[in-house]
Amino acid sequence: MKISARNALPGTVVDIKKGATTSHVVIDVNGIKVTAAITNEAVDDLGLKVGGAATAVVKSSDVMIAVA
After folding, report:
1. Rounded distance, CA 17 to CA 29, Å?
2. H or E stretch at 8
3. What average pLDDT does this structure show over 33-60?
4. Which of 19, 21, 22, 64 ranks highest by number of CB atoms within 10 Å?
5. What are the beta bridge partners of residue 6?
6. What span, in angstroms and rounded, lies between the C-alpha atoms of 64 and 40?
7. Angstrom distance (rounded) from CA 16 to CA 49
8. Hey, what's the torsion of the CAs at 38, 48, 16, 33, to 10 degrees?
9. pLDDT digits (tens, 9 = 90+) for 2-43
10. Please, which pLDDT band fits residue 62 given cuts at 50, 70 and 90?
């Protein structure tokens, strides 16, 4: 598979929390946890399982940072 995004972070799925329509999938990337909110259907279609390999792909035109 080829993809245009340059920020592809391979890791291991460490948690999947399914909600009514959306799942939160946590991927461990070299000790750093990356969480993605995707549809439950996408979790099933991708065959995501805890302990399985997955890649977090970050594609964004803006990154915002705030402090209190």
Report:
1. 18
2. strand 7-18
3. 94
4. 22
5. none
6. 27
7. 8
8. -80
9. 888 788 899 999 999 999 999 999 999 999 999 999 999 999
10. confident
Show the DSSP H helices in the chain as ranges. Answer: 40-46
To which residue do tokens 């065959």 refer?
47
- Is 3:57 a contact under the CB 8 Å cutoff? yes
The residue type of 4 is S
Domain boundaries, the chain: 7-58
17, with CB counted inside 10 A (0-12, 13-18, 19+), is exposed
Q: pTM for this one? A: 0.85
What is the DSSP code (8-state) at residue 31? T
